[in-house]
Write a structure and sequence with these properties.
By secondary structure, the protein is an alpha+beta fold. It has helices spanning 3-15, 19-40, and strands at 119-126, 129-136, 139-143, 148-149, 152-157, 161-166, 169-174. Among the domains are: 12-38; 117-174, SH3 type barrels, CATH 2.30.30. The protein has two helices and seven strands. The relative contact order is 0.07. The chain crosses the membrane at residues 23-42. Keywords: Membrane, Transmembrane, Transmembrane helix.
Length: 177
């Protein structure tokens, strides 16, 4: 379509518009032309806005919080649900042949009955079941009747004591002893 025919159709369309719509078409065309001139008229190597060096605000120094002299941080309480210190640490095993009998080990020729007894530290009762909290070899665990505690077997759990069967026969372990 030649340019003259296009301009003729455009004039015919524009002449058929009401006056208010003609003004809107002229205003829209003007805005589009102004934006195109503003965007295309800028040089490629210069920014859209210029900043003068004196207009930049200097940055303030970074300030860290400080506490008054003599301030000490408050002591935190121990978490009652945390495992005790040393819990879960692997035992250090000496190389074979370097083990010397010491006070913690039973000397040769002694019977297992002379080894340390389990220590009863608590009894838990719930319904018709009871369990004992016993420390043996520096390890605290809960045991039900019938379970083994090293060379001992838990026979019976009472309110304040337990009966264990071991190398030295039956023994009664009471709370606090």
């Amino acid at each position: 379509m030649p340019a003259a025919a296009f301009m003729e159709k455009l004039n015919t369309w524009y002449d058929n518009l009401p006056l208010r719509q003609r003004y809107l078409v002229l205003a829209g065309t003007g805005i589009i032309l102004a934006a195109a001139i503003a965007l295309l008229g800028l040089p490629d190597n210069q920014p859209a806005t210029r900043v003068t060096p004196g207009a930049v605000k200097p940055q303030a120094a970074v300030v860290q919080p400080a506490m008054p002299g003599g301030y000490t941080a408050p002591q935190t309480m121990r978490d009652p649900f945390a495992p005790p210190p040393g819990f879960g640490k692997p035992a250090i095993t000496p190389p074979p042949g370097s083990i010397q009998p010491g006070p913690a080990m039973a000397p040769p020729g002694t019977t297992p009955a002379q080894t340390a007894l389990p220590l009863l530290v608590g009894v838990v009762s719930g319904g018709d079941r009871q369990m004992a909290i016993i420390i043996y070899n520096n390890t605290s665990r809960a045991y039900y009747p019938g379970q083994e505690i090293g060379p001992y077997q838990l026979i019976q759990v009472d309110a304040n004591s337990v009966i264990v069967q071991g190398p030295g026969g039956q023994q009664v372990l009471a709370l606090g002893r």
